């Protein structure tokens, strides 16, 4: 297993180098950084002097190695727009996005697994058909439309939920959280449902298809022949064998939820990283864009690494295969 994990770590480092190359390319091919640092009336001599000062005249290999070294030390420079360290700006907005993504994925995982197991075991029931119909709506409607509809219903018509913002938060020093206040928890509901609805329907359909497939296998028939109860067959044998694809999809969903929370954060004016990234794109704030790209790449690498470890915990066959390979 150690050799397998070392291989995964090496692959993750290669991925991060490739992501770093793409982030570094933003500084060379997406606008001119000097234009963001000086006024339109600056002379060409001043522009050249700034290019020398910030290292734009150095060889490309030296610039790239310097960028990777600084990124490894969490130094992504200063924002052109906010005139503050990019790391500080990201750190201020990271808790909001992580809490939103965590709640959205939790809703998607819990409801998706429960509904998937139910529809897989009761495929012809009325409730199963209702859940499948609702899942089609969840997959078909775009995220921004779902958010707008939820705001119109629960915030405008019923007036039971806030329509924007994060609510009151508590500063713990290293983290700001809305879980500890009533307004913070209330503000999480609508954006979390909006962000997690598509993932929930995807998880439900995946679990359902896996349950239908596994219930037809021979070892399930053998378990019935042994006289095992339905609960032991359904949850001790069938459901356990659906965990591998569920773990894979859940891990990818968490990374995707963080990376593509931009639309939801924009609709609900959620003060997270997605909203910051969108403003950076509008103003061509390259340091923020590059830092966001590197951070999302690292999160996907980390999540895939954790998923690989969970494979060994859930499926003993992988441990056996790895031992044989070694």
Structural account:
The structure is a single chain. This protein is mostly helical. It has two domains: 2-72, no CATH class; 89-325, Orthogonal Bundle (MetI-like fold). Helices cover 75% and strands 1% of the residues. It is built from 15 helices and two strands. The protein has helices at 2-29, 33-37, 44-53, 60-72, 86-121, 126-140, 143-157, 182-214, 218-225, 230-238, 243-259, 262-267, 273-282, 286-314, 316-325; strands at 170-171, 176-177. The chain has a two-stranded antiparallel ribbon with strand order 1-2. A hairpin with a 4-residue loop joins β1 and β2 (176-177). The longest helix has 36 residues, at 86-121. It is globular, with a radius of gyration of 24 Å. The mean pLDDT is 81.
List the helices and strands and how they pair.
Blueprint (H helix, E strand, L loop, with lengths): L1 H28 L3 H5 L6 H10 L6 H13 L13 H36 L4 H15 L2 H15 L12 E2 L4 E2 L4 H33 L3 H8 L4 H9 L4 H17 L2 H6 L5 H10 L3 H29 L1 H10 L1
Antiparallel strand pairs: 1-2
Helix pairs in contact: 1-14, 5-6, 5-8, 5-11, 6-8, 7-8, 8-11, 11-14, 13-14, 14-15
């Amino acid at each position: 297993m150690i050799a397998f994990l070392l291989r995964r770590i090496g692959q993750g480092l290669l991925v991060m180098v490739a992501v770093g190359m793409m982030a570094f390319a933003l500084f060379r091919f997406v606008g001119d950084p000097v234009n963001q640092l000086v006024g339109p009336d600056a002379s060409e001599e001043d522009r050249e002097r700034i290019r020398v000062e910030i290292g734009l005249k150095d060889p490309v290999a030296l610039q790239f190695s310097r960028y990777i070294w600084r990124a490894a030390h969490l130094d992504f420079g200063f924002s052109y727009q906010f005139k503050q360290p990019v790391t500080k700006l990201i750190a201020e907005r990271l808790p909001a996005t992580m809490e939103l993504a965590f709640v959205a994925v939790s809703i998607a995982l819990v409801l998706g697994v429960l509904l998937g197991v139910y529809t897989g075991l009761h495929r012809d029931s009325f409730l199963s058909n209702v859940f499948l119909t609702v899942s089609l709506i969840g997959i078909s409607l775009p995220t921004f439309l779902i958010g707008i509809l939820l705001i119109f219903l629960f915030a405008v018509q019923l007036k039971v939920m806030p329509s924007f913002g994060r609510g009151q938060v508590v500063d713990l020093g290293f983290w700001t959280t809305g879980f500890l206040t009533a307004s913070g928890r209330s503000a999480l509901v609508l954006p979390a449902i909006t962000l997690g609805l598509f993932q929930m329907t995807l998880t439900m359909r995946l679990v359902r298809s896996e349950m239908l497939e596994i219930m037809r296998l021979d070892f399930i028939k053998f378990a019935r022949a042994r006289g095992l109860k339905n609960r032991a067959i359904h949850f001790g044998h069938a459901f356990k064998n659906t965990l591998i694809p569920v773990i894979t999809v859940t891990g990818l969903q968490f990374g995707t939820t963080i990376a593509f929370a931009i639309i939801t954060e924009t609709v609900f004016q959620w003060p997270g990283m997605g909203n910051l990234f969108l403003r950076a794109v509008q103003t061509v704030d390259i340091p923020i864009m590059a830092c966001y790209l590197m951070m999302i790449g690292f999160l996907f690498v980390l999540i895939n690494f954790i998923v690989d470890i969970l494979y060994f915990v859930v499926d003993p066959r992988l441990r056996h295969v790895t031992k044989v390979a070694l």
